[in-house]
Design a protein that fits this description.
The complex is a heterodimer of chains A (about 160) and B (about 180).
Chain A: H1 3-33, H2 43-53, E1 58-66, H3 76-86, E2 92-99, E3 102-111, E4 114-123, E5 127-134, H4 136-144, H5 146-151, H6 154-163
Antiparallel strand pairs in A: 1-5, 2-3, 3-4, 4-5
Chain B: H1 2-17, H2 23-31, E1 34-41, H3 42-50, H4 57-67, E2 69-78, H5 91-96, E3 102-109, E4 116-124, E5 127-137, E6 140-148, H6 154-158, H7 169-172
Antiparallel strand pairs in B: 1-2, 2-6, 3-4, 4-5, 5-6
Helix pairs in contact in B: 3-4
The chains are: A alpha+beta (about 160), B alpha+beta (about 180).
Amino acid sequence: MRRLPVALMLCGVIGSAADREFRDVVDSISNRVHARPLHIPMFGLVNFVAAVARPAGTKHIDLAVWEDLDWRSGDTRDMAESIRASVGGSWKPFVHSRSAQEVVSIYARPEGSDWRLLVVSVERHEATVVQLQLNPDALQRWITLPREYAFGHRRVKSTTRDLDP
Amino acid sequence: MKKIIIACLALLPLAAQEIKLPPNLEKLADKAREVVDVTMDGPLLQLAARFLSDRDPDEARVKKLVAGLKSIYVRSFEFESRGEYQESDLDALRNQLKSPGWSRIVGVKSKKDGENAEVYLKSENGGITGLAVIAAEPKELTVVNIVGSIQPEDLRDLGGRFGIPKVDLGKKEKKEDE
């Protein structure tokens, strides 16, 4: 019986650590692009839907989106390094892609029977940070075709927007 | 202290199988139109194996060989035009693969389309413990390092999965000019 409160406390600690790391990445990008992410109204409802319906094996989503950026000052190498530095050590690097116009970084880490994926994409005019809690089936799709999923990351964003009332 | 030393010694063989990209190759990232890194180790690799079917003969084969792997690392550079990297850029990496235990088993040079591929094996105590591939095309360069128990022919099954490019060694062996 004592285990339940301990497990709940641990879940809380893990959850808050993940939230803090997500915020760290968001802050790091905000500082570099000199802009704050957009406010997404009623995003809590998206997570309610995710928790109940689990679309594509996703149980929880954290999302930060920047639009209409005019980020030309820094190069993508600096941005990639900055993202790497702000992501906590508990995340495993999975896929990194960098071109002159775009940086995409994907990190993964196990969390109980699920996995968390942190997908960071920064382009000259827009940026997205998505943290997903996925069941192993969903993660498997990312593993078998990591490059294809990395470049298809915008689908995550558009799916989330479809859910946004 | 003793435990730390033992732990470090235990990790040494694993570290020795992994290749480190030399600084000059890292610098190519600045010239490349796109650089992609795929890193799969430990739990991610185990998870990948778990989801491969035992019923499908191809997947069953991949599942069996992934079970023997410790990590897969792929780094790929894509360039805008030909000639943005030189053969000599790969020398430091090749020198690393000349260290004890490593041996080159395939070297393919195609003068017609400029596609070159080299496969290196790391042997230890009579078994293969690692594999490295350098696949060089005029506008694309890919380095693959697989750590674990693997055979060269397994590359055919792994190609197209986990970020590993398809390496058709069977067809190109005829062109080999080594």
